[in-house]
DNA sequence: GGGTCCGACTCAGAAAATTCTAC
DNA sequence: GGTAGAATTTTCTGAGTCGGACC
């Protein structure tokens, strides 16, 4: 896709697609599946029943125990009820969804137990749908669409302490849909009896379909897959910007260190914030509308209550203790020794403030980004995350890769380098539900292997003793083969232990996000080439598709 | 200049689906 | 070679970033 460059802002010349796939219509429950109110069977109207099934399907989920979720759900559910239902059903706690829930569980079970043929049939139907709606033509290429299926109705599941959790996400109809395609393309037809909200031909944007969602009033889009030209080029650009930052980062660092001394409060705050963004890879931190979303922050929106200052802590001077909820309500907790000037500035910023006051009261992301723009064209706060992530990977790979290691050990080193980045970016996950169990399984495998090794060693020893006495060819051979066996088992044991280490270290860390969004793939490709690691060991099929440009481009001497 | 709002895009972890592995 | 359960991949959609219009 280096073929042609478009003038500023033009994203394509030709765009043709089939429009979205709508969620399947609601299928009413069979007569024998009952809903109970206050212990009595109650037949619900179709609309009320549909919304009730959304709740029933989530009955085992922690969400349905949360006060806000229940309140929001009940309020929206009542809106769907007939006036009769509304007057009867006044208390959610008196609603009994268990029968409905059991029915859905049985359905799931039945789906699992389906015969091969039935499963095959479903698979083929999905493939047909994908083939028809999953691709579009953008300019001269057939491209995969990322999310061609419209989100089905359901209950809103916000992350963390979201004030809107449990609200009803309504069904999207063709009348909600804006289609974007080129004038000279075959315009997708709305489902029979329906009309699109609008058909437009805007080649300054990349989306094919959009609609407005009813919970936050925000716009949702259907766009192309990461493997597409338009996404790939943008991704490449992102890393090129980060590489440009590499060239001037020293200058920028000197600059903000100078600014710590500025007479102007705004400049000092800007400089300290930038230091955090650079050193700790914090997000920019836009302001958010209070009460509309979970209370989370980034750098510029940090509040006094989110940091603690320790002149001395555990033998270190000037320690800042961060404790706040970031994106997706993931907790950021870190104790960081900082330079004295930063520490003194923070003390100054916190003077005469309440815990809920902004730490950087003279700063926001727009001021910060404007300043960054002056330092380097295209520089914004998030570029620091990309830059620091990628440079860390490159450094760690250099440091951790041992040329004499075998392939599994080298891959462990790669994972460790990747992990260093994930820790820097605070990419966490809930420990897998089966973590303890799978760890124990692995441990028992290791124990078994150790026993096996001990046995093998004993056998080797006795074979050696035997050989000493007999001094014939045959017993010598036996010693050799026993030696090999010991070696083989040692290797297997090592591999298992490596696996255990890797898994344990990864318990609460998510590697995927950094791999997919922050690490210049050319670093990984070059590393694979340099050490003769098959690229499949690092990137799976999807990832190889997304990073096709890098796999194509990077040689073993690539430097970020 | 700076604040607010909105649109378009990237990035995020959970959950579902699929594949792999050990018995 | 069939199957259960573990591991990995894919899907899903919510949650950020950031720029530009408007005042």
UniProtKB/TrEMBL annotation:
Record bears the keyword Ribonucleoprotein: no
InterPro entries to which the protein is assigned, alphabetical: DNA_brk_join_enz, DNA_topo_DNA_db_N_dom1, DNA_topo_DNA_db_N_dom2, TopoI, TopoI_C_dom, TopoI_cat_a-hlx-sub_euk, TopoI_cat_a/b-sub_euk, TopoI_cat_euk
GO molecular function: DNA binding; DNA topoisomerase type I (single strand cut, ATP-independent) activity
Location of region: Disordered: 459-480
UniProt EC number: 5.6.2.1
Residue ranges of every copy of the DNA topoisomerase I eukaryotic-type domain listed in the record: 155-532
Location(s), subcellular: Nucleus
Keywords: Biological rhythms, Coiled coil, DNA-binding, Isomerase, Nucleus, Topoisomerase
GO terms under cellular component: chromosome; nucleolus
Superkingdom of source: Eukaryota
Pfam families in the record: Topo_C_assoc (PF14370), Topoisom_I (PF01028), Topoisom_I_N (PF02919)
Active site location: 518
Catalyses which reaction(s): ATP-independent breakage of single-stranded DNA, followed by passage and rejoining
Biological process (GO), any one: DNA topological change
Coiled coil: 105-132
Location, primary (coarse class): nucleus
Function: Releases the supercoiling and torsional tension of DNA introduced during the DNA replication and transcription by transiently cleaving and rejoining one strand of the DNA duplex. Introduces a single-strand break via transesterification at the specific target site 5'-[CT]CCTTp site in duplex DNA. The scissile phosphodiester is attacked by the catalytic tyrosine of the enzyme, resulting in the formation of a DNA-(3'-phosphotyrosyl)-enzyme intermediate and the expulsion of a 5'-OH DNA strand. The free DNA strand then undergoes passage around the unbroken strand thus removing DNA supercoils.
Matches recorded under PANTHER family: DNA TOPOISOMERASE 1, DNA TOPOISOMERASE I
Family named by the database record: Belongs to the type IB topoisomerase family.
Protein name (database record): DNA topoisomerase I
Organism, as annotated: Mesembrinibis cayennensis
């Amino acid at each position: 896709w280096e073929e042609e460059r478009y003038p500023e802002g033009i994203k394509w010349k030709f765009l043709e697609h089939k429009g979205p796939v709508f969620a399947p219509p609601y299928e009413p429950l069979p007569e024998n599946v009952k809903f109970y109110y206050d212990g009595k069977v109650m037949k619900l109207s179709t609309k009320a029943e549909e919304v009730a099934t959304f709740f029933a399907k989530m009955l085992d989920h922690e969400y349905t125990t949360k006060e806000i979720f229940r309140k929001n759900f009940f309020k929206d559910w009542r809106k769907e009820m007939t006036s009769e239902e509304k007057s009867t059903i006044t208390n959610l706690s008196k609603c009994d969804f268990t029968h409905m829930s059991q029915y859905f569980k049985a359905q799931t079970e039945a789906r699992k137990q389906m015969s091969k043929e039935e499963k095959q049939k479903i698979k083929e139907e999905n493939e047909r749908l994908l083939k028809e709606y999953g691709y579009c033509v953008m300019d001269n290429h057939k491209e995969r669409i990322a999310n061609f299926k419209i989100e089905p109705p359901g209950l809103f599941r916000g992350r963390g302490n979201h004030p809107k959790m449990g609200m009803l996400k309504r069904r999207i109809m063709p009348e909600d849909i804006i289609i974007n395609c080129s004038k000279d393309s075959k315009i997708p037809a709305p489902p029979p009896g329906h009309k699109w909200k609008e058909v437009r031909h805007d080649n300054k944007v990349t989306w094919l379909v959009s609609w407005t969602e009813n919970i936050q009033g925000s716009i949702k889009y259907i766009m192309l897959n990461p493997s597409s030209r338009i996404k790939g080029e943008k991704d490449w650009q992102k890393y090129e910007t980060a590489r440009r930052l590499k060239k001037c980062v020293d200058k920028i660092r000197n600059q903000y260190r100078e600014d710590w001394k500025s007479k102007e409060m705004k400049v000092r705050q800007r400089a300290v914030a930038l230091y955090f963004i650079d050193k700790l890879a914090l997000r920019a931190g836009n302001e958010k509308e209070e009460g509309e979303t979970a209370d989370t922050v980034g750098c510029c929106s940090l509040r006094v209550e989110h940091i603690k200052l320790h002149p001395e802590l555990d033998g270190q001077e000037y320690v800042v203790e961060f404790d706040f909820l970031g994106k997706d309500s993931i907790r950021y907790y870190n104790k960081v020794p900082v330079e004295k000037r930063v520490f003194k500035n923070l003390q100054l910023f916190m003077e005469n403030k309440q815990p809920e006051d902004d730490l950087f009261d003279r700063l926001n992301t727009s001021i910060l980004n404007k300043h960054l723009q002056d330092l380097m064209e295209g520089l914004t706060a998030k570029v620091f995350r990309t830059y620091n992530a990628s440079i860390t990977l490159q450094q760690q790979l250099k440091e951790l890769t041992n040329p004499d290691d075998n392939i599994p050990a080298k891959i462990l080193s790669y994972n460790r380098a990747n992990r260093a980045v994930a820790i820097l970016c605070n990419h966490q996950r809930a420990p897998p539900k089966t973590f303890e169990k799978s760890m124990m399984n692995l441990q028992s495998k290791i124990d078994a292997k150790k026993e096996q090794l001990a046995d093998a060693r004993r056998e080797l020893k006795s074979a050696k003793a035997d050989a000493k006495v007999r001094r014939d060819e045959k017993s010598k051979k036996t010693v050799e083969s026993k030696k090999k066996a010991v070696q083989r088992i040692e290797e297997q044991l090592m591999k298992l232990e490596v696996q255990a280490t890797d898994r344990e270290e990864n318990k609460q860390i998510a590697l995927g996000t950094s791999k997919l969004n922050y690490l210049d793939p050319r670093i990984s490709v070059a590393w694979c080439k340099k050490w003769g690691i098959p690229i499949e060991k690092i990137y799976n099929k999807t990832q190889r598709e997304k990073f096709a440009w890098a796999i194509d481009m990077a040689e073993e001497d690539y430097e970020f």
